[in-house]
Amino acid sequence: MNKVLQNIYARIPRTYEPVNHILTFGMDIITRKKAAQIAAADGGERWLDVCSGTGEMAGYLKKLSRDGTKIYAADFSLPMLTLARAKPFGNAINFVISEAGNLPFEDDSFDLITISYATRNINSTPEGLLSHFREFHRVLKPNGRFVNLETSQPKSGVIRRLMHLFVKLTVAPTGGLISGSSAGYRYLSGSIRSFYSAEELADILYKTGFSEVSFDRRFFGVTAIHKAVK
């Protein structure tokens, strides 16, 4: 378990969502809802949101789920999940304290796995990301879906440079000021600027064993929603 990240997220639960909404001008809300729609479209009895944090994606999935669908939300931060559990939908979701790379579930357990704006946190090394994706692949049922929502690198060089400049000048100062965790938002700022392009992440998913990998760029390529099938 990454103790540095765990300490960062232990400090910022109550300001985490407001800061995200402010820094993205609400883009994170729109893209999470869209990713949840893509994820929920094919149904299934058991869904898992990994690195669930304060439960935003889990909440959207619950609203879109059918009767009988069981939704699980896993995260390594107890303070974040405690906040998620206190939300109106909290009693309807099964919360699990777990590191994303070592999930406490049997093989072929879930019809759907989602992750939103947290893939950068499991990308300490290329092999580390592959290892986590293999773990997701393991607990998915045959033909199960994996939906990944994350920041991306715009294809346009101009837009990419503008995005990196905006992130560098705003994320760490604003996030640190509101949350009180300057170190945490310095880390997040760097991880956004160094993450993969949509094409590179698709290649990594194929290397992990997924098939039918597709992606949908959003907001000029600043974010991307990937869908892959086991």
Low-confidence stretches: none
What's the structural domain tally? 1
Q: What proportion strand?
A: 15-25%
Radius of gyration: 16 Å
Span between N and C termini?
A: 26 Å
Supply the CATH class. Answer: Alpha Beta
Approximate shape: globular
Describe the protein in words.
The chain is of the alpha/beta class and 230 residues long. The protein has a single domain (3-229), classed as 3-Layer(aba) Sandwich (Rossmann fold). It contains 9 helices and 7 strands; from the N terminus they run αααβαβαββαβαααββ. The protein has helices at 3-11, 13-23, 27-40, 56-64, 78-85, 126-139, 157-179, 182-194, 198-208; strands at residues 46-50, 70-75, 94-97, 110-116, 140-151, 211-218, 223-229. A 7-stranded mixed sheet has the order 3-2-1-4-5-7-6, with helices on both faces. α5 links the parallel β2 (70-75) and β3. α6 crosses α9. The protein is globular. The relative contact order is 0.16.
What would the keywords be for this entry?
single chain; 230 residues; alpha/beta; Rossmann fold; seven-stranded mixed sheet; 49% helix; 21% strand; globular
Q: Helices, strands, pairings?
A:
Blueprint: H1 3-11, H2 13-23, H3 27-40, E1 46-50, H4 56-64, E2 70-75, H5 78-85, E3 94-97, E4 110-116, H6 126-139, E5 140-151, H7 157-179, H8 182-194, H9 198-208, E6 211-218, E7 223-229
Parallel strand pairs: 1-2, 1-4, 2-3, 4-5
Antiparallel strand pairs: 5-7, 6-7
Helix pairs in contact: 2-7, 3-4, 6-9, 7-8
